[in-house]
Design brief:
187 residues; alpha+beta; 4-stranded antiparallel sheet
Amino acid sequence: MRAPIGNFDSAAPAAGAGNFTGPAADAVRAWTGTVPADQLLYVDTDPEKADTAVFVEHYGEDLVGTSANCVVVAAKRGGERTLAACVVPSTTRVDVNGAVRRQLGARKASFAPMDTAVAETGMEYGGITPIGLPEGWPLLIDAAVTGMPWTLVGSGRRRGKLILPGKALAELPGAVVLEGLGIPAGP
């Protein structure tokens, strides 16, 4: 099967992809959203080409406007720490000190340390995805991502990506769709 975006050797329904494992794979295999499960696709990628510029050069320029990044943030208020995931178009950055802090009712918010993000999600750094997050986590998604006909996100591993309709992300547990979560990336 050909992927609807990018120049990948092949794409397959993620639920049946044998080399797709981990929390994201478990969540895809248990999918009950309104978007048909066969529209959640898995593509194999080379982890040596994971850097954004190299990735786009190798897998297709159209991925610049159709990719989304998922990052883990830590919000603090009164000694309580909340971990959350944020999904924004790859051409933007997460508004941690504005939109995230306000939405989570936090006094302070910052990107979670890499070791915390990896340990808490059970996913590889550079492959963290909004699918298969720990139960109870807030999931903040920029509205621009849910409006994408197809979007590329991580698969939980550095080797492999998921391609799915953006609207499927809004159906994930804990999802809150926000305008302006992604802000222009600075120089």
